[in-house]
Write a structure and sequence with these properties.
Chain lengths: ~650, ~350
């Protein structure tokens, strides 16, 4: 039985950076911009290292009779004021620039890697000292320092490149430090430290491989900065040995004759721009590849075709479900029918919430219960049209007070949000803007939701704070969210939601982030607010205790579906779905002393691993072969209960 | 600053505002209590003084390390041992380094940084004359870069793919164009072809404010372009992050208009890293003035540094580096103050 876990949930493959590099290169080669910029950079590098092989002409051979000629077959990029071949001069002129830039870049990366790894790995005083040095280095104008250094010897760039390397090492150092910090917090590195592996071995074997990727990005960026600086110096006549060409001095030569011929400016400055651009584009593409790989550690999604087919099939099932479920009732403040939410990505769509149906009556508190990953939060957010980018309502209907909310125009949606429905989020420390005082937060909500400003808004804000039973309401207006406790902040969030006297409050796990004692206070507050105002509440939770305390009815969600729906009293007295029974048995809230808590084996399946037929079958003690054949509808029975299980009646009779 | 915890905390109800500990005398205590921002600023200002001292030492040491004999430069290689020694004594170069530093520092406090080896003009006078040009140039460029960068970045963060992509291309192009080349492209377009603006030279504000303004337009744009791209990228990343946060979702759920969500809330919370970036581009632009002032023939600090560096004019170089350091410290102070103004949490730390 237990080996089912192994079959349904593949163990995550360990990410090995070394074997990963081939994949990174492959992913990089799929990006056209990355390929083009890499090819160009390779060409520039080769030409700079072997100018005599590539250059068609002698860069110093003057021919005054052919001065300032435009591009021709003999001179692809034309000739300069002394009739020298511009292309050949560019090829020879790149060499000192590229070599100097590489010197500075290599030094910057070396210093950055060593300093960053030391700071991130050993932390403490060393980290603070290095951090301070980095801050100082970042506030030094690089060009000024280079000029001072070049005062020593203005034709030799080496010392200046050492200074440049040191000064540009600050940014790679910061990046390496944060990668090291992240690696350090990783379980196996902590284990290696405990096991007494020498620091150097841990750093070289386990930390360094993670640094390579970000280091390549930083290398390209540091290289572009160095090239910019070196050509700038050469433009100013520093680090130049005339008549030998450099990219920078060629621009200043071209500028001398720009009155007569402005063409010369194009190739000379153009080559610098193109090289820097390619370095930047390559860095950008490489960073994208690394980011994509980091986000791919979650299970692989189905192929695009299979996923689209699945979307179609599931949408069809949702429509059938919707037909089977009763039509929206006129006395419901909120009716959700066949709500289907999908995540669209370039590799296809994945259904996350599948044909959800329920009603919230006026003044009723409906709980939606489920484990994490069941789709309950997505459902709540979809109702308010607050799905994150990439998520969308693929099918279904949401009726709020008779208004359909799906595909509502922006303006009308704003009207609904201001007048009909409010939202309270899970963590008050995240859901209140930290830069605004409690007073301005409330006044802003009142401005848009009740058209109140000035003194009227302030006194209404005080009234709202009193209605959520906060003492010293007037003083509280001047406090910032970070200055009050979590429970107080959540009361403020609820007070804000009450602005505009909404008919429905959507509360997404409003007590999860709070202390247990504070939780029950907030639940009591919500109940009394409902009793006083007649506002309906949609209460999302994973806590059966909160459901029992607060809700009139509850919908149980599993793997993106509602599996059972009924009044709280009946639900606790007699569960119909095996998942609900199992969930209740695993909750300490309803257990008797001495009774064993029974965890449900396995875990909620990922949306890409939903089974055909009943989605709970792999974890169900009562699953039969019929449970695997085709979709199972949410059936409503006579006493206002609904269940998505073909064996519900049979099991109920057997007393399971 | 002090290890003792603020007395208000122990007696007050949970969640009473934390108040900053004043740093200076007890007599001033109440002022700082009432104005936490003032206390914060005073603290930062107090930190700047030792920093200036350190910078002066560093400046002195770096310049002292530069080989080459000023006496040889002054005499043009034609002097004898006595005349060398005389000039060394005149410049104070015959004393040990700490004594030289002490003398330099004492003179510094009297507003005397010596005189240029070549022009024999007072260094302080020369630098102060040129300071205005550079400050006008850099402040203008930072302002332009910040406004353009924040606008572009915010637009990108609030836009769909195509607009994002277009702004991406613009910022990449701005990033890659070297300043010395962009300067000539602008000159050839706006000064030579359209003849709208002067291609080089400087007109003092006192002579003609409008001519002063037009003499600065092209240099300011040249200097601002790379800064604007850096600010735009930072703004976009920062805004992307903030727009995904829970309180933005809650504001949207409240029906707060998009304009208010983006400008009043998201931008304000995204502002700290943007401000850091603006501080960094300011520093970068100080270096950039060397090239820009050279191309546009502006008599600022940047062109002076270049001149001093190529002619080994050590007193001028020393003074110019010190001036740049003071500008950097002042800018960091302003940025710190803005941090405190933008984020209520920074003030009490």
């Amino acid at each position: 039985m237990t080996d089912l876990i192994g079959k349904t949930v593949p163990a995550p493959a360990a990410i090995r950076p070394a074997s990963d590099s081939v994949k990174v290169v492959k992913a990089l080669l799929r990006k056209p911009l990355a390929v083009i910029s890499l090819l160009f950079l390779a060409l520039v590098l080769f030409a700079s290292l072997f100018p005599s092989v590539v250059a068609p002409d002698n860069p110093l051979a003057a021919n005054v009779s052919a001065a300032l000629e435009g591009p021709s077959r003999a001179h692809l990029l034309g000739t300069d004021e002394l009739g020298r071949d511009v292309l050949s001069r560019l090829i020879y002129g790149g060499r000192p620039m590229i070599i100097a830039s590489i010197e500075a870049t290599v030094l910057a990366l070396l210093l950055g890697t060593v300093g960053g790894m030391a700071a991130g790995y050993f932390r403490g005083r060393l980290d603070r000292t290095i951090g301070w040095v980095v801050d100082v280095v970042l506030s030094i104008p690089v060009m000024i320092v280079l000029l001072v250094v070049l005062t020593i010897n203005s034709t030799d760039l080496t010392r200046a490149m050492v200074a440049l390397g040191v000064l540009t090492s600050a940014v790679p150092l910061r990046v390496v430090r944060s990668v090291t910090l992240e690696a350090r917090s990783n379980g196996y590195i902590a284990a290696a430290r405990v096991a007494g592996l020498p620091h150097r071995r841990i750093l070289v074997r386990h930390v360094l491989p993670r640094v390579y990727g970000p280091l390549i990005v930083q290398g390209a960026l540091a290289g572009s900065v160095a090239l910019m600086m070196v050509t700038g110096l050469a433009f100013l006549g520093l680090g130049v040995n005339p008549p030998n060409p450099t990219w920078g001095s060629m621009v200043s030569d071209a500028a001398q004759v720009m009155q007569q011929d402005s063409w010369l400016l194009v190739p000379t400055g153009g080559i610098v721009t193109l090289t820097v651009l390619c370095l930047g584009l390559f860095a950008d593409a490489f960073r994208d590849v690394l980011a994509e790989r980091a986000s791919m550690s979650s299970p692989v999604s189905r192929s695009a075709a299979a996923a689209s087919a699945a979307v179609a099939a599931e949408a069809a099932q949702a429509a059938a479900d919707r037909a089977a479920f009763r039509p929206p009732r006129p006395d419901a403040v909120l009716s959700v029918r066949g709500l289907t939410i999908a995540r669209r990505s370039h590799s296809g769509s994945v259904i996350l919430v599948d044909g959800v149906n329920f009603d919230v009556m006026r003044g009723e508190i409906l709980g939606i219960v489920g484990e994490s990953g069941s789709g309950k939060t997505l459902t709540a957010r979809a109702i308010l049209n607050l799905l994150a980018p990439g998520l969308e309502v693929a099918a279904g209907e949401v009726l709020l007070d008779g208004t359909s909310l799906v595909n509502l125009s922006r303006r009308r949606l704003t009207g609904v949000r201001r007048n009909l429905v409010s939202f309270v989020a899970q963590d008050p420390s995240q859901s209140l803007d930290p830069s605004f005082s409690i007073g301005s937060t409330l006044r802003e909500a009142l401005k848009w939701r009740e058209n109140l400003t000035g003194g009227a808004a302030t006194s209404r804000a005080v009234e709202l704070l009193r209605s959520v039973r906060l003492p010293n309401a007037e003083q509280l207006l001047h406090y910032y969210p970070y200055q009050v406790s979590g429970g107080m902040a959540q009361r403020v969030a609820i007070a804000r939601a009450l602005a505009g006297n909404p008919k429905l409050l959507v509360a997404d796990e409003p007590t999860t982030a709070l202390d247990v004692t504070v939780q029950s206070e907030i639940l009591a507050l919500l109940r009394s607010l409902r009793d006083d105002t007649g506002m309906a509440i949609l209460f999302i939770t994973h806590n059966w205790g909160a459901v029992a305390d607060l809700c009139d009815r509850a919908a149980v969600m599993y793997a993106g579906e509602v599996v059972e729906l009924g009044s709280v009293g009946e639900l606790f007295a007699r569960t119909l779905h095996p998942y609900t029974s199992a969930l209740l048995r695993s909750s300490p809230y309803f257990s008797k002393p001495g009774q064993e808590l029974r965890a449900i084996r396995g875990s909620v399946p990922h949306p890409t691993e939903w089974t055909q037929g009943c989605r709970f079958q792999d974890r169900c003690d009562f699953a039969t072969d019929t449970c695997k054949q085709g979709a199972i509808a949410l059936r409503e029975n006579a006493d206002n209960r609904a269940v998505r299980c073909i064996r519900a009646e049979e099991l109920a009779q057997a007393g399971a | 600053m002090s290890a003792q915890s603020p007395p208000t905390l122990t007696s007050a109800a949970p969640g009473d505002p934390l108040r900053p500990e004043p740093v200076t005398s007890v007599a001033n205590k109440n002022i700082f209590r009432r104005h936490p921002l003032l206390a914060f600023f005073t603290r930062r200002l107090a930190l700047a003084v030792p920093l200036l001292f350190i910078v002066s030492i560093l400046t002195f040491i770096i310049v002292a390390l530069i080989p080459g004999n000023p006496a040889a430069l002054i005499l043009g290689g034609s002097g004898n041992v006595q005349s060398y020694a005389a000039i060394d004594a005149q410049l104070g170069l015959d004393k040990p380094l700490p004594v030289q530093y002490w003398n330099w520092l004492t003179r510094l406090f009297h507003g005397d940084l010596g005189e240029s080896i070549f022009t024999h003009q007072s260094v302080v006078q020369e630098l102060t004359q040129r300071l205005g040009v550079t400050v006008a140039l850099v402040v203008g460029a930072v302002f332009l870069a910040s406004v353009a960068g924040v606008l572009l970045g915010t637009l990108a963060a609030c836009s769909r793919r195509t607009v994002r992509r277009i702004i991406d291309v613009i910022t990449w192009a701005g990033f890659a164009v070297p300043g010395f080349w962009l300067a000539y492209l602008l000159v050839s377009t706006f000064a030579m072809h359209i003849k709208l603006l002067p291609g080089s030279g400087y007109v003092p504000f006192g002579t003609s404010p409008s001519a002063w303004f037009s003499s600065l337009v092209l240099p300011v744009i040249t200097l601002a372009v790379p800064g604007a791209t850096a600010v735009a990228k930072q703004t976009r990343d920062s805004m992307d992050h903030v727009l995904g946060l829970e309180y933005i979702t809650t504001l949207r759920a409240d029906g707060i208009p998009q304009r208010s969500v983006v400008l009043r809330h998201a931008l304000r919370n995204a502002a700290l890293p943007i401000l850091t970036m603006i501080g960094l581009i300011f520093v970068g632009m100080l270096g950039g003035t060397v090239v820009v002032e050279q191309v546009f023939a502006l008599p600022g600090l940047g062109s002076l540094v270049l001149q001093a560096a190529s002619s080994h004019d050590l007193p001028v170089l020393e003074g110019a580096v010190l001036y740049f350091a003071i500008i950097v410290i002042a800018v960091n102070l302003v940025i710190d103050l803005l941090y405190g103004w933008l984020d209520p949490r920074v003030r009490v730390q």
